[in-house]
Amino acid sequence: MNSDRLDTLPAEILVGIANEHLRLNCKDRQALFYDLDIESELLEQKLAASGFVYDQNCNQYKPR
Question: What angle do CA 1, 12, 26 make, to 5 degrees?
Answer without folding.
Answer: 50
